[in-house]
Amino acid sequence: MKALCSTKNWLYLFFGLQFAGLVVGRCTNVKFFAWAPYDELSYYEISITQGGESLSAEEIKERYRRSAVGRENRTIHNLIAIIRQYETTYGRADSAHVLVGFNIHGRRPASWSWPADSLHWE
Amino acid sequence: MKKLPPQILLSLRALAFYLLLFRREWLETLWFQLPYLPFIPFFDQIPTGLFCLPLIVIVYLAPFAILLNYRAALAARCLGIGLLLSLLSSMPLFGNSKCFLACLFLLGGSYQVGGWIYQMQLFLLYFGAGLNKLLQADWWNGYYFDFFAAEVFELAGYRYLTQYVDALLVAKISGILILLFELLLGLLFCFRAQIGLAIFLGFSFHVLMLLLSWGYLSFHFFFVSSVAYYLLFSTTKQSVGFGNKWMRNNLNIRLMTVLWVCFLLLQLGAEKWRYAW
């Protein structure tokens, strides 16, 4: 029991989880715990309409804790994951329509929309 | 209670100062703003007060325990776990340098296990970064670096060079060199005999990025990495030929203290100047 609880064993688990994060990062588009800083750059703009009205930049920031317009220094799918999670949990009853326009490396303009949850490359 | 080696204590103090001075926004979110869009859905079932109160106690008291050297190793471990929990409890809060900082607190407090823990952490950081770039076409065709250097950071050196050489060729070579360098660095950290070289190359890499991006990319990573290198260097000193003198000699501690204090003050000044500007 003592051996099981030793610091060394906890650290093996800790590093194991980090390895798992790297593997998961390779298998999915979302890369949070995958040690992927500055691997993709994109400028984005989020717009939301709810009940026929557009939400302001402040309301969007409050909603996702992310600026309505800004730069994503990691994969844009991380931002999409945040929005998707909000809309499927806290904002499920809002029936909001979200559009994220983005441009990866200034060359690949695209947009992602919710509730369709679909990507459109221009 | 075993006395904390001075190098470990200095490293933990440097990280604690950095957390208190430069990560205030992160600390502020602990004031009853978590969990919010957590990575682990179960966290949403925990009431905000119940989740935040223990975190506030740990994350606000532990840095002072470290600074005062009161059960510093335990405080560092608790702080690392608390910070990791805060990151796990909010997707928008996540950042790689924050995660690295939390890991270093945890590992700094676990120094008895051996220097291999810092080797492993640095291997994961650099190898992971290189691996994520390796499999992206835009790192190979130059699109990433061209955008990064020409539009995002407007690097003067890149602009000058591309007056004479095709921009995409420069970007392609730079991108490939960076990703290969990160992979190499990750691998070098695996070998005890190569730790000195790895630290030198890693340090040079971060200094170069810092200079090229006018201090933007990235002060946070540079500072936290320098502490990680020092932790590694101090715990595996025999392998790089410094012998026991390195651990006994106070000169390195004074030198590092002066360097880190100067750097933190410089950055504080730069931030104030940027804000005023």
Q: Explain this structure to me?
A:
The complex is a heterodimer of chains A (122) and B (277). Chain A has helices spanning 7-27, 57-64, 76-88; strands spanning 42-50, 53-54, 69-72, 97-104, 108-114, 118-121. With 122 residues, chain A is α+β, with helices and mostly antiparallel strands. The radius of gyration of chain A is 18 Å and the shape is globular. The mean pLDDT of chain A is 92. Chain B is mainly alpha-helical and 277 residues long. Chain B has 14 helices and no strands. The radius of gyration of chain B is 20 Å and the shape is globular. The model of chain B has no long low-confidence stretch (mean pLDDT 90). Classes of the chains: A alpha+beta (122), B mainly alpha (277). Chain A binds chain B through residues 7-8, 11, 14-15, 18-19, 21-22, 25-26, 31-41, 64-66, 71, 74, 78, 81-82, 85-86, 89-90, 104-107, and chain B through 36-37, 39, 44, 90-94, 96-97, 99, 106-107, 110, 112-113, 117, 120-121, 124-125, 127-129, 131-133, 135-136, 138-139, 143-144, 146-148, 151-152, 217-218, 221.
In short:
The complex is a heterodimer of chains A (122) and B (277). With 122 residues, chain A is α+β, with helices and mostly antiparallel strands. Chain A is built from 3 helices and 6 strands.
Radius of gyration of chain A (Å): 18 Å
Number of helices of chain A: 3
Mass-distribution shape of chain A: globular
Assembly annotation: heterodimer
The first-to-last residue Cα distance of chain A is: 58 Å
* SS elements, strand count of chain A: 6
Radius of gyration of chain B: 20 Å
